[in-house]
Structures are given as structure tokens and as C-alpha cells.
Amino acid sequence: MDAMLFSGKSSEDNTIVELLASALRKDIAFGKLLPDQKLKINELRTRYGGSNHSMRETLRILSSEGLVEATAQRGFRVTSATEDDLRDIQLVRLQIETVALSRAIAIGDVAWEGRVIAAHHALQKAEQQVTENPDDLTALEWDKACGAFAAVLIEACASPRLIDLQRKFFDQSRRFRLAQLREGKLDWASRRTRQKALLDAVLRKDADMALSLLQDDIKADLKTTEKS
Q: Per-residue pLDDT tens for 136-180?
């Protein structure tokens, strides 16, 4: 009986932490929690709820994802979002996702191809909705569809660590991607053409073309200013 009670309590705590983490991720992504902003436990509890323990656990999770970082004063702050940060995230995503997609194309089966097709279809629907009604809800659904398509492209790579790294750095790129959306900097027609070509290349097992298109897609998603 004691074990069941303990298990239930742990499950409840985990659910609270997951809800808190989701709320903070969203507010970081949409700029409601600003880059370099200090995150004070009491202020966060007033805004989001939860206990000291659950909020600290939430910040620990977000820290492991690279969205939050510990300060020298043993507090936390939102990670920076500079041009150098953007350039570094782009670099890492290019390296990780091209290796992972190359492996996925080599060993992926028909079932994987079907999931890629489905994720691409869902992404196209989400892009249509966000262009017709660009509010926070459709932006969030669009971002989820972007993440789902990026994730399914590499899920057949047979490397849990590559998959974990891809998810981590995709999440870190969210603020930059949503900023482009808010500022009207996304070329939707080019995105549709490029993503359809990427899908077709994956289905043809044309690794060279697929990797080139994936690189173009990441660079378009995370536009950087060229250093002189």
C-alpha cells in the first residue's frame, strides 16, 4: 500500500513538473520570458504555480535542454539569444541532422517512409493554418508540426543519442524560428517547394539530394547574418 501511495505521489509530481516545463518553454519561445532574464523561484511560482521543489526540478530540466542556465549566484536565467547563439545552433543542427538523415535513408523501412509522408502532410496543413490565421495557437501548432517532421526524418537512424541531440537543439532553435514567423520573414512558397522536394528525395533514397535540401531548410529556418 505504501509503495502505491509513493508511486502515485511521484506520478503527480512528475505531471506538475511536465506542465510547468511546457508553460515555461512556450513563454521562452514566444519571448514572454526574455533572453538573459533572471528567473526567481518565488516570482515563477506566483506566475505559474507549483512548489519550490517542482519549480527547481522544472528549471533543472530546462537547463538540461539548454533553454535555461545556472548563474554564478546559484540562480537561473533564460539563455541568451544572440546572433552568435543562432549561428552556433545552426552549425550543430547541420552536423547532427545530416549525419542522422544519411543513416535513416540507408536503413529506414517502408513503415518509416509512411511516417515521413504523414508528418509532411501534417506540416503542410499547419503551415496553411498559420498563414491564414497567425496567432499564438496556430504558431504553436505549426512549430509542433515542424518539430514532428524534423524528428521523423531522422528517427530511423538507429541512434538514440543522435535523436536526443536533434530534439535538444531543435528546441533551442524555437525562439529564432518563431521570431521569423512573427516578423514575417518566412518565404512560405519556397518552404513548400523545398520540403516537398526533400520528401521526394527521401522516398527515392537519394541521399545526396536529401541532405542538400535538409541543409537548405535548416539555413532558411535559422537565417544568420554573414560575418564580414
A: 899 999 999 999 999 999 999 999 999 999 999 999 999 999 989
Q: Is the Cβ–Cβ distance between 173 and 89 less than 8 Å?
A: yes
Q: What is the pTM of this model?
A: 0.83
Q: How close are the terminal C-alpha atoms of the chain, in Å?
A: 67
pLDDT in tens, 141-153: 999 999 999 999 9
Structurally, what CATH architecture does the domain formed by 2-78 represent?
Answer: Orthogonal Bundle (1.10)
* Three-state DSSP state, 110: helix
pLDDT bracket for residue 3 (50, 70, 90): very low
CA distance 207 to 15: 40
Phi-psi region of 159 (alpha: psi -120 to 50; beta: other; left: phi over 0): beta
**Could you state, in order of their start, the residue ranges of all structural domains in the chain?**
2-78, 83-221
Q: What homologous superfamily does CATH list for 83-221?
A: GntR ligand-binding domain-like (1.20.120.530)
Nearest by Cα to 31 from 216, 176, 190: 176
